[in-house]
Amino acid sequence: MRYRQWVGALLLASLTSACGGSYADAEAPMTAGMPGGGDYQREAAPAPPMDAMKVEEEAGERAYAQDELAKKAPSEGPVPAEPPQPGQQKPTSGGTVAVPGIDDPSRKAPILIYRAEFSLSVFEVEKSLDAVEGLAKMNGGYLSRRDDRSITVRVPAQQFQNLVDEIEKVGDVLHRDVVSEDVTAEYRDLEVQLQNQMALRARFEKLLEKAAKVQEALEIEKELGRITGEIERIKGRLKLLADQARYSTITVRFEPRASQQVQQGPFVLPLPWLQNVGLRRLKSL
Predict the structure, then answer these.
(1) Which of 11, 145, 171, 279 could hold 120 in an S-S bridge, CB 3.0 to 4.6 Å?
(2) Are 183 and 191 a contacting pair, CB within 8 Å?
(3) Do residues 182 and 158 make contact, with C-beta atoms less than 8 angstroms apart?
(4) What 3-state class would DSSP assign to 133?
(5) At 73, is the pLDDT very low, low, confident or very high (cuts 50, 70, 90)?
(6) Over the stretch 250-279, which tens digit does the pLDDT of each residue have?
(7) Which residues of 14-25 are buried (b: 16+ CB within 10 A; e: fewer)?
(8) Looking at the predicted structure, is the pLDDT value of residue 16 above 90?
(9) What are the residue ranges spanned by the domains of the chain?
(10) Is the peptide bond before 266 cis (omega within 30 degrees of 0)?
(11) What does the DSSP 8-state code read for residue 99?
């Protein structure tokens, strides 16, 4: 048995030496042709790459660990804004007040303009003027005009009724006039006119490009000027109506009221028979 093992080992050693010799012989021509002579040293072969399955498994484990840490860590990002409640109006860009019928996508709500005029009787006019101006600013409004005895403020349409109720508490109401004007039909008609005028101007601009004579070009430019002026007029009216619908106007006029003074005698007795009992003589004692 041992004899067979030794014979096998000798055969394996002889085969290994033979393979090494043939490999060296095969490399000899390559080393002979290299500059500088000497033995040719082969670079070590690169390490075999890792198994693809093992790499994917390790990447999956790292991703899972990162997800677990993200779930446990507290959120430090900004808190998302709550969605608007049903029926709540969303302010437009630039902080302007949204108007139903203009800014909402459905455009089905009426466009209303609110105005109010008051006449109040007060003891101190200056303090009352300051009070009305302060109430307007508290409700998101601003001062439009003010003189010695009257003041005009503008307030968002949503706060109109609230401000009206507060102004009535400033003094004694002598006159009260509240108006709500529906301008929906006018606003929609102006929008249609604006679209028509814009389309008409586009057609005249194309005609101006094709005009072959100077006279024709001058006439077209004259008509373009008229159309442009009409467009600007319509735009101005639309802007005015939208502004009046966004901010309601309230005017308050004050009437100064004299302070009551106590009459300084002589007093008139309410009943004539009291004079006969000598009440006046008793009062003079």
Answers:
(1) 171
(2) no
(3) no
(4) helix
(5) very low
(6) 999 999 987 665 455 555 656 666 566 665
(7) eeeeeeeeeeee
(8) no
(9) 97-182, 185-244
(10) yes
(11) -
